[in-house]
């Protein structure tokens, strides 16, 4: 048997590999659908708030009215961050990316957390709630500091969505905008073993704590092939600028064999389950703002990509313009994804911790054969 035929089958990028079982969510690419705890994500978007979905991800069932009230109260009570963290955030370089700021803030909160070393399920859940509550405060404080503005104190009377807008802008928008934002949070909350979630599970499998797992997950999410795509989409739409030149712009991307951001997906090959719902709400934002430019460019790109390349848009494609129309600066788009995905990441941290085995794959060595170490003057 030749050396070559001994090589095991390598699934580059772990394509098609089932790494574990999970009860949290299910992607069904054959029907372009996604469920959280058995509920279709588009139904959750129409019937539930983000807080209800966060509860579902962490408990496996939707909350009763009393359970939801308790969950909301607990989250609202923990939004404030320490004076030390405020000082650290003020010292961040103002031209740094907000994803690096939130990654650093989460790591810092791990240092401060009273239960830092406790990886019991109960402690991990309490820490996850603190992270859910405090992440928007950190994102907004870093964003405002980068513009030379003072942070805004969280208001415990606000819902999760209202709180986010108030922390960033100092005001709460109209209900249509809040609903579209909530829908985006629900759609971003969870998506099986994507790169950042798997990162969180891998770190958890070593026995490390949730702040370490979430810090690593944020680092993974930042990449433009993953969560960073929602920002890249908006930069692309702005670069095109005018629907009249969208086809020509896309053709030049094809000519250069370049990626078109917001298109393609590792699992969905005939459409991302989340896109129709997010597109509907992005269209609503275009109506509210009275500017259809971005949705019109998006429509042309999506039609052309499908006709010419048979590639469908992913969630980041409608989410980018939706956030822009809501008034957010582009570098805040992926941090908003963090504010939502902390729910899914934490659910996976709990699940991994409950039935753990260290994640440690093998590598097939293709370097030089074993050889003697030459002396320094003989090299
Ligand atoms: N633009 C142009 N071509 C694309 C593309 C895109 N966004 N996404 C996939 N393709 C092409 C690939 O070049 C490849 O073509 P080839 O067979 O001629 O080489 C083919 O479609 C299959 O794609 P592949 O790279 O095997 O898919 P993947 O599962 O490894 O990668 C992504 C999935 C998401 C990383 C990839 O689609 C991508 O980079 N998309 C842009 C970034 C993005 O939007 N990320 C957010 C994901 S939710």
From TrEMBL:
NCBIfam families: cit_synth_II, PRK14033.1. Belongs to the citrate synthase family. The keyword Transferase applies. Transmembrane segments: none annotated. This is Citrate synthase. InterPro entries: 2-MeCitrate/Citrate_synth_II, Citrate_synth-like_lrg_a-sub, Citrate_synth-like_sm_a-sub, Citrate_synthase, Citrate_synthase_AS, Citrate_synthase_bac-typ, Citrate_synthase_sf. It comes from the Bacteria. The keyword Transferase applies.
């Amino acid at each position: 048997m030749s050396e070559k035929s001994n090589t095991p089958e390598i699934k580059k990028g772990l394509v098609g590999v089932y790494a574990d079982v999970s009860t949290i969510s299910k992607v069904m690419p054959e029907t372009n659908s996604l469920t959280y705890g058995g509920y279709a994500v588009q139904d959750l978007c129409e019937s539930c708030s983000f807080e209800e979905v966060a509860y579902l991800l962490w408990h496996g069932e939707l909350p009763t009215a009393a359970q939801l009230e308790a969950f909301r109260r607990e989250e609202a009570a923990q939004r404030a961050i320490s004076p030390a963290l405020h000082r650290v955030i003020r010292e961040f370089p103002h031209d740094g990316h907000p994803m690096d700021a939130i990654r650093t803030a989460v790591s810092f909160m791990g240092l401060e957390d009273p239960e830092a070393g406790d990886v019991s399920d109960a402690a991990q859940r309490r820490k996850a709630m603190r992270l859910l509550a405090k992440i928007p405060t950190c994102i907004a404080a870093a964003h405002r500091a980068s513009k030379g503005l003072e942070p805004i104190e969280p208001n415990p009377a606000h819902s999760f969505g209202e709180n986010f807008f108030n922390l960033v802008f100092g005001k709460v928008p109209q209900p249509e905008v809040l609903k579209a934002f909530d829908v985006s949070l629900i759609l971003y909350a969870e998506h099986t073993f994507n790169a950042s979630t798997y990162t969180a599970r891998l770190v958890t499998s070593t026995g490390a704590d949730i702040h370490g797992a979430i810090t690593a997950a944020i680092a993974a999410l930042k990449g433009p092939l993953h969560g960073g795509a929602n920002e890249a989409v908006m930069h692309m739409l702005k670069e095109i600028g005018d629907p009249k030149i969208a086809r020509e712009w896309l053709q030049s991307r094809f000519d250069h064999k370049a990626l078109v951001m917001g298109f393609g997906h590792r699992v969905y090959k005939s459409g991302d389950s989340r896109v129709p719902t997010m597109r509907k709400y992005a269209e609503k934002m275009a109506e509210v703002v009275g500017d259809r430019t971005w949705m019109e460019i998006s429509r042309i790109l999506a039609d052309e990509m499908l006709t010419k390349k048979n590639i469908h848009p992913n969630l980041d494609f409608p989410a980018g313009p939706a956030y822009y129309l809501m008034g957010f600066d582009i570098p805040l788009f992926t941090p908003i994804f963090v504010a939502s995905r902390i729910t899914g990441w934490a659910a996976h941290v709990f699940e991994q911790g409950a039935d753990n085995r260290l994640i440690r794959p093998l590598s097939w060595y293709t370097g030089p054969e074993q050889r003697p170490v030459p002396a320094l003057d003989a090299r």
